[in-house]
Amino acid sequence: MKHKIQNVSLFFIMLINCVTSRRFGLTLVSQNETFPNYLKYHDDFLEEHFPKHFRWGAGTASYQVEGGWNEDGKSESIWDVFVRKVPSPISDGSTGDVACDSYHKFSEDVQLLKKMGVTFYRFSISWPRVLPDGTIGNKNQPGINYYNRLINELIANGIQPVVTLFHYDMPKTLELKGGWLNEDLIQYFSNYAYFAFETFGDRVKTWITFNEALSICQYAYGYGYLAPGILDPAKNPYICGHTILKAHALAYRLYELLFKPVQNGRCGMSMFTTWYEPGSDLPDDIAAAARALDFELGWFTNPIINGNYPKIMREYIGKKSAEEGLATSRLPSFDVQWQNALKGSSDFLGINHYTSNLVKAISGGSPGWQGDQDTVAYLDSNWESSASFWLKVVPWGFRKILNWIKNTYGNPLVLITENGFSDNSEAGLHDVRRVKYHKDYINQMLKAVIWDKCNIEGYAVWSLLDNFEWRKGYTEKFGVHLVNFSDPARIRTPKSSSYFLAKLFANHEFS
100 — phi, psi (to 5°)? Predict the structure, then answer.
């Protein structure tokens, strides 16, 4: 399918004129109190079938598993640069240069997926592997061939590809232009999306534009915790988010107009979300929990469903900006044209969920995403821990966030694109805590489907493999397959969790 469009962004601007976490690096306190308001949500284990057409999958991301960091024409990504900083920002001083070596061992990965009985595999395309300088004028055929081989092998084994266009690894050349702080990236990303839809869309029927835009903007451009490591929490996250939302909208409208009618696919976005439970029954804490949800999940979900940022975000950030003596809000605004482009720009909502927090109301926070909310999130020390300080095991929070999505956004179609538990190397193959985590979380999801009628179509476990866990390197493991990173062959071995999930996927029920 060939279209003679040189500037995708300008094309859609003309078209639209015609039609009308807290996940990384947060400091959370914990306490020993328990609160009846959330304990009341506990209930019995549900032994029931999943709907007939419910889909099961597993996920990875390009930089975390592929390796081949400088092979066959691939250029440097921002992560290739970030891991080489001195001193190393990575906990164990490691890199993703080889990682799981999936660039060479993807056929083995496909067989692992097949043995698990999944029906879809969520992976991401490395932008610098296919377009080394980030532009469609410089295509890298070996990189394109790699993804063609992976996609074809998945389909040959009865597994549908679910493809993420951006999972953190931007070409270095585009970061040198300002990255997501520069609105020129809207056009670069739209052109990249056009290239991907045209090249792989005859076989890929589910596209995800961005993975966890909040993590990109808050932790890469705000706190400096992720690549490219920029520290400016007051303004940068909102500028970054504004650019990403516009880039998503244009990519979606491009797909909707030119590719969807022919390829019969769909396009969405994956959001990171925690469940925020009020720390007490006080009205201020209940309101604080609602604000935390709007500031986290609502930041990117409300625009793509309703066309604008949540009202509470606009009000709070606007008020605080005025108090700081700023002439305009630190949160940019969308004009009517962009609101029209954004509204309804998702065929499904991808959800990445791992854990829950308790929330209390505060005031006087520093300017920025967290301080702007007038909330503080913390953990109950009675909750079971994982290898990640931020990830506590709170299964009932999964059902609650799914119901919040249903009630807030009119029960949209939801695909769980990540859910997982971290341990360390000492856990080995007998990862009983991960088995229990997935059993309990998936059962809460089942309750949301059967009892609450939440519109959930499928679930992807995170992750297929132990891999490079960003700032934590190889010290935290999320995989249901162990990877021996000290062996050049990167041998993969199924863990107990892999066998548990394979049985669940095959039986389509808890019994």
Answer: -90, 0
